[in-house]
Amino acid sequence: MEETTWLSAIWLLSENPASLFALIGMVALLVAFAYIKKITIHTRLLVHIGLALALTVVLHTFRLYHMPQGGSVTLGAMLPLLLLSFRYGPVVGYLAGFVYGLLNLLQDPYILHPVQVLFDYPLPYMAMGLAGFFRDRPFLGATVAVVGRFICHFISGVVFFASYAPEGMSPYWYSLVFNGSYLLPELVICLVILKVLPVGRVLRTIPK
């Protein structure tokens, strides 16, 4: 009887992608917050998070291109969150990314569904924290973080923006092209800046 109940629940979730991804998104948030609760927050850390968020908001206003359904190519707006993650590790990156996701929701809202908001705002910017796992390999860290962000936007595109796809185009292909068209240039810009900046020296000058 219990097995039948589980099978029924799985079937219902598979029939309703929004519910399935809502569950996945909430689990991801809960896991991240379980680690965030363990952070010892001191004044210096708060100042550094505040500076990173302020720089990210400012850089986000310098848009080279703005997509019609949201998403922009900027002058390296993700760089402050990446540097914060490199210096303090992934968990602080998750926290800063979550806060910036809420700020971006106020700054540049595009809302179709509550679950879409989850996958287009808090979760993709929390993915910037993944760079913290690769603090000694900043190019790889930045790439992994942007790929994590892409996956969140890709899911949102497939589930909630399928109706925007041109006639005859698969929603998977549409979401891939749409989100890749601004995240790939965004990644390239961040990698170029990381190449120019003496990242190791900059991070060493930021006391923990």
From TrEMBL:
The chain crosses the membrane at residues 20-36, 45-65, 77-103, 139-162, 182-203. The keyword Transmembrane applies. One of its GO terms (cellular component) is plasma membrane. It holds the Pfam family Thia_YuaJ. It comes from the Bacteria. InterPro entries: Thia_Transptr_ThiT. GO terms for molecular function: thiamine transmembrane transporter activity. Keywords: Membrane, Transmembrane, Transmembrane helix. This is Thiamine transporter. It comes from Propionispora vibrioides.
